[in-house]
Amino acid sequence: MFSNKDISRFANLETPFYYYDLNLLQNTLNACANAAKLYNFHVHYALKANFNPAVLKKVKAIGFGADCVSGGEVNRAIETGFNPKQVVFAGVGKSDKEINLALDQDIFCFNVESVQELEVINELAGKKGKIAKIAIRINPNVDAHTHHNITTGLDENKFGVNSWDLPKCVETLKVSEHLEFLGIHFHIGSQITNLDVYKNLCVRVNEFAIWFEERGFNVKILNVGGGLGIDYHNPEQQIPDFDAYFKIFSEFLEVKAGQEVHFELGRALVGQCASLISRVLYIKNGKKKNFVVLDAGMTELMRPALYQAYHKIENLSRGNQTTLKYDIVGPICESTDCFGKEVEQPESFRGDLYAIRSAGAYGEVMASKYNLRDEIRSVYSEEA
């Protein structure tokens, strides 16, 4: 919820902008760190969710590692001060340039997604006279029961090594002098709210760990990825239940002496800490549709246009007076530039302030310059 002081402050600022509640972010990070500590679990923050400098500063300070999916993210993590020994690098299409960059930084681990990638990393590490530490990202064919565009752990997805290619991975590892096998890695999707899904994942992790051990490999790392969701419909329920989440893995993962369990959380840590603040440009009332036209659009928040994602929308300038149903749209020259259809809101007027909630994950990072839009700004609840 926004206080009257917040709304008064917003009224004097140029819109649109992302507003970050850094106190909420800190509380969320604390809750996750405390819950993980109970089980000695290791958390890496997924930079793809949000790489705002103020956000990264707080994540780094809590002691989490960094989960990166590009050379740019590896660079950003190192520049922010993350320990390279806590940086993992995933991604189905790592370029030679990106791999070399990560090798030069002596990162903790490459999460490798194909047999060919094993061969490439081995070759590039050899040219540098280095040993690259790797984990095999396995596609476990576990249904995450989430939106089809953000599932990653099924046979039909491009991510990870499928089970039928694992024997070839083993053969390649045994002849690769510049690779050190650390363990196995999984990530089955994003915005997962049914924790039972993770029980199924644990079963598969246990099976694959045994499979590698039977072939003479020491599985030091069990990296189960992330994907824990947030409640977009009730943003006031701000902090996910990390205790219940980690407890699932404590109960169902078969962790042996000396093994470490690693997580790669993104949305659950930052999703609720930011809102997109926008101002009404025009009201267009018609016979079939009423439109609120905002100065923010899909160039500032892509998720609704990309996969029809829901975000709670609030008129901050009006009370509980007469309500109307509006399509809440932006100024971009695309019909998909819509944040919500038939959204019940107080009767709205030019100049009203709107908040689009739960925009801390995959919001600012996906902003674009389409239509030569100005770069989106950030405003913070405290000095960043």
UniProtKB/TrEMBL annotation:
GO biological process, one term: lysine biosynthetic process via diaminopimelate
Keyword Lyase tagged: yes
Modification type N6-(pyridoxal phosphate)lysine: residues: 48
Record: active site: 333 (proton donor)
Residues holding pyridoxal 5'-phosphate: 227, 264-267, 362
Pfam entry (one): Orn_Arg_deC_N
Catalytic activity: meso-2,6-diaminopimelate + H(+) = L-lysine + CO2
Residue span, Orn/DAP/Arg decarboxylase 2 N-terminal domain: 35-270
Molecular function per GO: diaminopimelate decarboxylase activity; pyridoxal phosphate binding
Keyword Amino-acid biosynthesis: yes
Top-rank taxon: Bacteria
Residue ranges annotated for the Orn/DAP/Arg decarboxylase 2 C-terminal domain, each copy included: 17-360
Entry cofactors: pyridoxal 5'-phosphate
Binding positions for substrate per the UniProt entry: 267, 303, 307, 334, 362
Pathway of action: Amino-acid biosynthesis; L-lysine biosynthesis via DAP pathway; L-lysine from DL-2,6-diaminopimelate: step 1/1
InterPro entries assigned: Ala_racemase/Decarboxylase_C, DAP_deCOOHase_LysA, De-COase2_C, De-COase2_CS, De-COase2_N, De-COase2_pyr-phos_BS, Orn/DAP/Arg_de-COase, PLP-binding_barrel
Family of the protein in this entry: Belongs to the Orn/Lys/Arg decarboxylase class-II family. LysA subfamily.
HAMAP family: LysA
Task performed by this protein: Specifically catalyzes the decarboxylation of meso-diaminopimelate (meso-DAP) to L-lysine.
PANTHER family: DIAMINOPIMELATE DECARBOXYLASE, GROUP IV DECARBOXYLASE
Subunit note: Homodimer.
Protein known as: Diaminopimelate decarboxylase
Species per Swiss-Prot/TrEMBL record: Pedobacter heparinus (strain ATCC 13125 / DSM 2366 / CIP 104194 / JCM 7457 / NBRC 12017 / NCIMB 9290 / NRRL B-14731 / HIM 762-3)
